[in-house]
Design goal:
1 helix; mainly beta; two-stranded antiparallel ribbon
């Protein structure tokens, strides 16, 4: 699960027959990484799943923008499966 900064908030709206329906608003976010040993930080610019690594982006403006929490969590799972989470800590930051 992603940090609170990237979670969408929920609004409720009434349907015409009285029941409430949850309406989700998605929040754009980036994945920030921090190296555990050196303390170096950056953002995920591009994920190369077929080659098994990601391309670093130094600025938040150059980083990949995820449209939803679901999209960011898919790439986060892929990064963990590739072994990138062994030396790096990943977190989502709101755009």
């Amino acid at each position: 699960m992603l940090p609170v900064a990237c979670r969408p908030y929920q609004k409720y709206e009434k349907r015409s027959f009285g029941r409430e329906r949850r309406k989700r608003k998605t929040m754009k976010c980036n994945l920030k990484w921090t190296n555990i040993y050196s303390g170096e930080t950056g953002y995920v610019g591009k994920l190369m799943k077929s080659k098994g690594y990601f391309i670093n982006a130094a600025n938040k403006s150059d980083a990949k923008i995820y449209k939803s929490e679901k999209e960011a969590s898919k790439d986060l799972v892929a990064l963990i499966e590739m072994g990138e989470a062994e030396n790096n800590r990943f977190e989502a930051e709101a755009c």
